[in-house]
Design goal:
heterodimer, A: 250 residues, alpha/beta, Rossmann fold, 2 domains, four-stranded antiparallel beta sheet, 10 helices, 10 strands, 24% strand, B: 246 residues, mainly alpha, 0% strand
Chain lengths: 250, 246
């Protein structure tokens, strides 16, 4: 469980996050949605400590990230996995070396144990025979899967995903969404997904938070979204002509 | 103000870089990888440049030495001391600042804009230490070897030029390079090389590490890294010369 308590963040004179409080549930896929520039990426970066907040607290169970020093943060981050928008795989390492990297760095496992763990994670994301390929030799969807495998290799308690299906075709996007959802339930992780893809919201959004102009404007489930009277959320959810037609028929 | 901010940011990065590594074994491996990337792969360019530098110093000294009272073996001495004192450390340092510096700034800059550095941080890895420290150690270990290679090859280039052009005899040149040899010149040159190695690796790394934007900014950071490290090499060349030779 992660509790975000009254956090604010400004860059120079622009306030990007305004007094946001959210509770991200354990064992659930928590989605942060909002328009581009609404502040959701900054929010996630604040939650994982890549940006310092101006005020407020961020609790990982009972540990406050805001008051931690660098060493404590590094220790906490070993309990996190993150799937980046562009996958962020290390170009100079093979798929196997990419996934093995956190194990090399932080465990005392033998080489055989590490390779077994890598193969287990690759199988979990339905990839085979790619161990010795470099990221540049993989498709976008495969890169995302490798990035998921790397994110879960250390059995993280917290999983963060930034636009997990951007740049993917709709079918691959659903596969990635379901994979994240399955892994979340399987390992009882607290998963926070930052997206503006409504397909993802409807597919896996167990808890949805809508960020608008740097504020938390709405919170609910994917079922609540379809029946909300929140104007800004309706504008966002039913932005496309197809969605508008569906809503008219509802 | 911006300059002071950058200086402060540079020293903060150095502070983070020098903190205790997560796993020393991984860092050892990285040092050897960087020695190959930054050092061994630079041997070719260092040899080519040093041969020509040695040859040109010899020929220019010969053509400007018209006084018959000055013995020709002094040309060998001039070539040796110029290579030892200045060219093998400073000029090779400047060339490495261009080759290695741009490589480091663009590599780390690319990692920054593609979020690979963020990925390291999220894993709990001290990215400053993991990315910069092995490069700096590799350069500190291997650049003195490059300097020694440059000294040897440069003096050899001068000898070859004197033979091929007939500027002076082989015996004069060989006598000249042995004449009044001061071993401290090599120590002086190697001390400079170690300081330059720190500049060549950490300054471009700093520009790459804090780059913001896209490919264009990575290119700019690479240029800034090379220019700044080149200027710092020249500045520290003066400071170290005054400290060590005065």
């Amino acid at each position: 469980m992660i509790i975000v308590d009254n956090i604010s963040k400004s860059f120079n004179s622009t306030q990007v996050l305004k007094d946001i409080s959210i509770r991200f549930e354990e064992g659930k896929t928590n989605l942060i949605i909002g328009r581009s520039g609404s502040g959701k990426t900054v929010l996630v970066k604040c939650i994982i400590g890549l940006h310092e907040v101006d005020q407020g607290s961020i609790f990982y169970h009972d540990r406050n990230l805001v008051t931690m020093d660098l060493k404590e943060r590094q220790s906490l981050r070993r309990e996190m996995g993150k799937l980046f928008q562009g996958s962020a795989l290390f170009d100079s390492l093979t798929v196997e070396e990419n996934i093995k990297f956190p194990l090399d760095m932080f465990t005392t496992m033998t080489e055989k144990e590490k390779v077994n763990r890598v193969n287990f994670c690759l199988e979990r994301v339905s990839l085979n025979d790619v161990n010795h390929l470099f990221p540049a030799e993989l498709s976008g969807g495969m890169q995302k899967r490798v990035a998921i495998a790397r994110a879960i290799v250390q059995n993280p308690k917290y999983l963060f995903c930034d636009e997990p299906n951007s740049g993917l075709d709709p079918i691959t996007a659903i596969v990635i969404d379901n994979l994240i959802s399955d892994i979340t339930h399987e390992y009882n992780m607290t998963t926070v997904i930052n997206t503006h893809d409504m397909n993802s919201v409807m597919e896996i959004g167990e808890k949805v938070v809508f960020i608008h102009d740097g504020k938390k404007a709405w919170e609910g489930t994917r079922d609540d979204i379809l029946n909300t009277s929140h104007e800004a959320l309706n504008d966002f959810v039913f932005a496309s002509n197809l969605a508008k037609k569906i809503k008219e028929k509802m | 103000m911006k300059f002071l901010e950058s200086v402060g940011q540079y020293f903060l990065l150095m502070g983070r870089m020098l903190s205790r590594p997560e796993k020393t074994k991984i860092y050892y491996r990285q040092v050897f990888i960087e020695i190959e990337k930054l050092g061994i792969n630079s041997i070719g360019i260092v040899i080519i440049i040093s041969i020509f530098m040695g040859a040109v110093i010899t020929l220019q000294t010969r053509y400007n030495l018209e006084n018959p009272l000055i013995p020709l073996y002094l040309i060998g001495l001039t070539a040796r001391d110029t290579m030892l004192l200045e060219f093998s450390s400073t000029i090779v340092g400047l060339i490495l600042a261009g080759k290695v510096g741009s490589n480091i700034a663009s590599e780390i800059g690319h990692m920054r804009i593609t979020e690979q550095i963020d990925a390291l941080e999220i894993m709990g890895v001290n990215s400053a230490s993991y990315l910069v420290l092995p490069k700096m150690l590799a350069a500190i270990i291997f650049n003195p070897i490059l300097t020694l290679i440059s000294m040897f090859v440069g003096i050899l280039g001068g000898w070859a030029a004197s033979i091929v052009t007939g500027a002076l005899s082989s015996s004069d040149y060989i006598y000249g390079i042995q004449y009044w040899f001061i071993p401290f010149y090599i120590t002086y040159s190697l001390v400079k090389t170690v300081v330059f190695a720190i500049i060549i690796t950490t300054v471009p790394a700093f520009f790459g590490y804090y780059v913001k934007g896209g490919a264009l900014e990575v290119g700019r950071s690479s240029t800034k890294g090379v220019v700044t490290s080149s200027v710092l090499i020249l500045l520290f060349n003066v400071i170290l010369t005054q400290l060590l030779l005065a």
